[in-house]
Amino acid sequence: MAPVDLLSHIGRTPIVRLETLDTGPCELFVKLESQNPSGSIKDRIAVSMIDAAEQEGRLRPGGALVEATAGNTGLALALVAARRGYRLTLVIPDKMSREKIAHVRALGAEVVLTRSDVGKGHPAYYQDLAQRLADETGAVYIDQFNNPANPRAHETGTGPEIWEQLNGQVDAVVAGVGSGGTLTGLSRFFARVSPTTDIVLADPEGSILAEYTRSGQVGEAGSWLVEGIGEDFVPPVSDLSRVRHAYTISDGESFATARAVLRHEGILVGSSSGTLIAAALRYCRAQTKPKRVVTFVCDSGNKYLSKMYNDTWLNDQGLSERAPVGDLRDLIARRPDEGALVSVDPQETLRIAYQRMKLHDVSQLPVLEHGSCVGLIDESDLLLALQRGLPFGAPVARAMVTDLETLAPDAPLDALLALFERGRVALVVDQGRFLGLITRMDYLNAQRGKAA
């Protein structure tokens, strides 16, 4: 059998029907773009845009590429660049998941991290910075936001696939907008073959696009945690004129929907897919007649295991589903009763304490014995123990701090802040039962959640 180029497996992704979620009178289908070679729908546009640059003579063998990406376009470009022998520099906002950054670096791409809290026109804005790097180095700037090969990939590929797979019965298509290529290409295709098909925009809360489709006005952008969709401007390559319905979806609803899809449908979806499916469910439930609706699993949730599928991360973002109790317990990030506490036993070794700190990305551990907190050990304690000559095999009891200060769960907030002023960590204890730690970062995370 002749070898097959990996890139030839881009597209022709399967469509499945969601069976257990409440879709009202409608059938809701998802196209599993997560099954593309790099794991996302962006493989389609990466090949399309690089093909176009080659055909136009702008990109020659061994050439260099630069792109600004806040999501999966970088992964897709890194895959195609690696397969075809191009050098690639990606300018990435610092909210991109660690898994994605590690993935593109492993594929050989150079990563330039920049700020995610600045808008167009700021020198650190990721698109402006990418353009500047391309100009300075002579590399080809892919520029997905202005590149006509972006929507063309969906007009000539994704749209016809959906039409064929659903036997020409498509009442609505739900998509998000990052660069705008997916929605624009699909809307052009369906305008030709099925003008009655609704084009539905799913937009993160904080993005300006949903309101733009309703009023034509570009409002003030906020911030959001969902990756890959939503914008603070209208991408030049996008055509939103055919959008008939637009839904604004909060981070909380997006993440909860993604987790529900995994729990009830068995599909591990990414954060933008949570937004799309949440919007599709709203659309379906608003209908009075049966319709066939399709949306996308844009990428796999395996890139977000450290984020939206991590209960502690959700809690740190103020998005936990935990019911508030109205006292200091609400500030504890890792509670024993939720199985989230990371601790160490006094007879376990310093090596084990160090490994747990590294694994769980924490700087200190409570030392528990029979359910009671008998000490604390942090990075400084480990360092001092080694300087005193203790081996990594020594028990934690020989290095832990035992001068502890505790607070009852109903203690006033002033008491907690007073502990912080003295450089202490708060141990919350109720009638001898250890409920958890509160660090300065836990308190700051809670305050940020309130401000958002």
Task: Walk me through the structure.
- The structure is a single chain.
- The chain is α/β, with parallel strands linked by helices.
- The chain folds into 3 domains: 9-35 and 155-303, Rossmann fold (3-Layer(aba) Sandwich); 42-141, 3-Layer(aba) Sandwich (Rossmann fold); 325-451, CBS-domain.
- The protein is 36% helix and 17% strand.
- It is built from 14 helices and 15 strands.
- The chain has helices spanning 42-55, 73-84, 98-106, 126-137, 149-165, 181-193, 209-215, 251-265, 271-285, 311-316, 350-360, 379-387, 413-421, 440-451; strands at residues 15-17, 27-32, 64-68, 87-93, 110-114, 140-141, 172-175, 198-204, 243-249, 292-297, 364-369, 372-378, 406-407, 426-430, 433-438.
- It has a 6-stranded mixed β-sheet, sandwiched between helices. A 4-stranded parallel β-sheet has the order 5-4-3-6, with helices on both faces. Strands 13-14-15 form a 3-stranded mixed β-sheet.
- Helix 3 links the parallel strand 4 (87-93) and strand 5 (110-114).
- Helix 1 (42-55) packs across helix 2 and helix 1 (42-55) crosses helix 5 (149-165).
- It starts with 14 loop residues before the first strand and ends with a helix.
- 42% of the residues are buried.
- Keywords: CBS domain, Pyridoxal phosphate.
- Its cofactor is pyridoxal 5'-phosphate.
- Belongs to the cysteine synthase/cystathionine beta-synthase family.
